[in-house]
Structure to design on (104 residues):
């Protein structure tokens, strides 16, 4: 596992946001932030789980997403937010964790 970013929910619109239509929310590019912060801004009626809308998360890149999810408390099943990356969210001891795998 390798640290990737910290995600923080916000209500403030930020420059460079990307809108994810299926989830009805906008995110910033964590790689563009010197502290690797990804800001998440959710629309009213977003279908994303409530914990994602309310609490920060820490994201880690993994080699095998399915293996990393084995035996974990899954909050959000794997999905593809952008081509070339698949993510899922788990809850570990009350903390929200995003696991990410780069795909071909």
């Amino acid at each position: 596992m390798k640290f990737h970013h910290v995600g923080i929910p916000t209500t403030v619109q930020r420059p460079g946001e990307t809108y994810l239509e299926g989830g009805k929310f906008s995110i910033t590019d964590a790689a563009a932030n010197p502290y690797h912060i990804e800001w998440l801004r959710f629309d009213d009626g977003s279908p994303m789980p409530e914990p994602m809308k309310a609490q920060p998360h820490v994201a880690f890149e993994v080699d095998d997403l399915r293996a990393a999810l084995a035996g974990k408390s899954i909050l959000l099943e794997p999905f593809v937010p952008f081509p070339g990356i698949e993510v899922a969210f788990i809850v570990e001891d009350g903390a929200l964790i995003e696991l990410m795998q780069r795909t071909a």
